[in-house]
Amino acid sequence: MPHPTSPVIVRQPGSDGVMVVLDPAVDYDPADKLVKAYPWAFSPRDTSGGIVESVEIEQATAAPGEKRTRGRPRSTG
To answer: What is the CA radius of gyration of the chain?
Structure first.
C-alpha cells in the first residue's frame, strides 16, 4: 500500500474543488483516485544530494540608512 512522502493538500479528483489532505500515516489503495491523480505525492524522494539547502535571497526593502534608486536603470543607446 502506498503512503504519501509528506502531508500535502490536493484537489479531490472528480469533485467541485474539494480539498483533501494526503496523510503519510494512511495506507492508500494503489487503485485509489488520489494515487492515480497525484503519483508525485506517493513516489519516493531523491535524497542523493539534489536538494538545495539555502540560496541567497534578494533584500526587498532598504536597510536603515541605505539609499535606493527607484525603477530600472535606463539604457543609453
So the answer is: 22
Query: Which cell is 64 given?
Result: 536603515
> Where are the domains positioned within the chain?
8-42
Is residue 65 predicted with pLDDT exceeding 70? Answer: yes
22-40 pLDDT, tens per residue? 988 888 898 999 999 998 8
Per-residue DSSP letters for the chain? ----SS-EEEEPTTSSS-EEEE-TTS---TTSHHHHH-HHHHSPP--SS-----------SPPTT-----SPPPP--
How many Cβ atoms sit within 10 Å of the Cβ of residue 20?
15
